[in-house]
Amino acid sequence: MQTNRGVARLPPGHRFGRQRARATAAFVDTLARAFGLPKPAPITYYFTDDLGETLRALGLEFFPYGSDPVGGRSNVFARHAYAGLADAEGYRHELAHIVLAPEVSGRTSGLVAEGLMTWTGGSAGLDYAKLLPGLARHLSDHPELTLQSLLENPPPRVGTLDVGYAGLAVLCKLVFDRSGLAGLRALLSAGRDPSTIVTTAAKSLGIPPAELDSLWRRQCGVP
Predict the structure, then answer these.
(1) In whole angstroms, what is the distance from residue 201 CA to residue 167 CA?
(2) What one-character-per-residue DSSP string does 107-135 give?
(3) H or E element: which one contains 7?
(4) What is the C-alpha to C-alpha distance for residues 113 and 14, in angstroms, rounded to an integer?
(5) Average pLDDT for residues 147-164, to the nearest whole number?
(6) Higher model confidence: residue 12 or residue 90?
(7) Helix H segments across 43-145?
(8) Residue 2 confidence (pLDDT) above 80
(9) Is the alpha carbon torsion for 44, 45, 48, 53 positive or negative?
(10) Who is most buried in 62, 89, 102, 201, counting CB within 10 A?
(11) What whole-number distance in Å separates Cα of residue 165 and Cα of residue 185?
(12) 71-75/43-48 β-pairing
């Protein structure tokens, strides 16, 4: 189906969720405006009801995607998004990758970039707010986990919870709320070294690095 924001390629028999699709198209425009980016060019959006089916349709018969068949992939250069889940018209994570590609460079940590996309576009079919309870439970159960250790060795995704994605989403939002786009862009440009990322985040927040973990945990919902 053609829209003013691109083309949706539907699986056979799927009943198109027009309202969800319109809300997602509005999200694309709103996200670009929030970052001061030009109005996005059209995006082609492919989806099925299952990520494995989506990947197989792309010719990736044995592509690893974990135990939960909910998620997506994107081709930023072709402006293609691929999703696999029910109600996929509302899946925004891969669209965020395409819209915010100008904010991400070769210097950006992959996990910080995924945090940005998870904050703005959600993950695993859930929006940012719905990811926080699971993240808070995990951090409560693992008091030894720090931002630096998370950047160095993120735990594997379990179900819809990816602690690395959600944890860095909280950091991106925290930096943006405290220091705006300038602080967020400093974080995205900090490179891939975990110590440098932590130091840059603390500097953007105006706090000593030693205080960052406790502030971050509180923002994640840990008492």
Answers:
(1) 13
(2) TS-HHHHHHHHHHHH-BTTB-HHHHHHHH
(3) strand 6-9
(4) 32
(5) 94
(6) 90
(7) 51-57, 93-99, 110-121, 128-141
(8) no
(9) positive
(10) 201
(11) 18
(12) unpaired
- Return d(Cα 97, Cα 118) in angstroms, integer: 9
Q: Cα 190–114–40 angle (5° rounding)?
A: 95
The one-letter code for the residue type at 170 is: V
Is 64 in contact with 82 (CB distance < 8 Å)? no
Give me the pLDDT at residue 61, please: 54
Cα(115)–Cα(128) distance, rounded to whole angstroms? 10
Number of alpha carbons in the 13 Å side-chain half-sphere of residue 173 = 22
State yes or no: pLDDT of 3 exceeds 50. no
Mean pLDDT of the chain: 87
**Six-digit token string for 84:** 């696999």
What's the DSSP call for residue 200? H
Placement of tokens 């460079």 in the chain: 105
Distances (CA, A) of 201 to 21, 24, 100, 147: 35, 30, 20, 10
Please report, for the chain, the start and end positions of each structural domain, with discontinuous segments joined by +: 2-103, 110-220
Predicted TM-score (pTM) of the model is 0.86
**The two structure tokens encoding residue 40:** 């996005």
Q: List the single range of 22-36, 42-56, 80-94, 203-217 with lowest mean pLDDT.
A: 42-56
Tokens of 103: 């904010």
pLDDT band at 164 (very low <50, low <70, confident <90, very high): very high
State what percent of residues in the chain have pLDDT above 90.
Answer: 63
Q: Which residues pair with 48 in a beta bridge?
A: 84
Alpha-carbon gap, residue 210 to 18, rounded angstroms? 48
Collapse the DSSP code of 97 into the 3-class scheme (helix H, G, I; strand E, B; otherwise coil) and give the result: helix
